[in-house]
Amino acid sequence: MRLLVLEDDSTLGEALQEFLRMDGHVVDWCRTLSQASVLAREPYDIWLLDWNLPDGSGVDWLRSQRIKGMTTAAIVLTARDQLQDRIAGLDGGADDFMVKPFAPEELSARLRAFSRRLAGSAERKRIGRVEVDIAAKSAWLNGVHVDLTAREWAILEALVLRAGRIVAATDLEALVMGLEGDIASNALQVHIHKLRSKLGKGLIETIRGLGYRLGADEAK
Description:
By secondary structure, this protein is of the alpha/beta class. It folds into two domains: 2-117, Response regulator (Rossmann fold); 121-214, Orthogonal Bundle (Arc Repressor Mutant, subunit A), CATH 1.10.10.10. Helices cover 40% and strands 23% of the residues. Helix 6 (150-160) packs across helix 7 (169-177) and helix 6 packs across helix 8. The model has no long low-confidence stretch (mean pLDDT 89).
């Protein structure tokens, strides 16, 4: 998944970014609400937000994004541990709440739970001959496990989490490569070609002029 980490503590922010990338996620990290506001309309699966930031409250910022209609899932990460704080965070638009310090493994488990929810199933998702387990980051073709590169998996995951929707090429590239992506390159097309060769040409449909969509007939 693509994650936005909003954390002003450099040590914690860097550690979170490194851990989450090792856990298989695409991660962008910013330190202020003004930076987050610039990135808010980027395609993300989940925001991870600190509460107290140099230029304001992460929860107030989240509330303002919800008022604007932004529905990106959000987890508040904070040292505040009182009941009224948890209530305020959830009422402010957070989907989950974690008290610092927390074990990175617990955050990883919560992200897996979110991915299952976003995929619409707690079990393997079947698309014709292909099965996908979002939480396990694994795919099978005709019951045989298929090895995918990190970028290939990121493309498949992004489309499975948005099944039935057309994903613009620029959005898909952002979801797969984060802010480091090169829109002018053909890297996305190369990865999609390789993914189709492994899981079936029809698994990913090209909607001319619009983008890509998870296909209904991967046997094409």
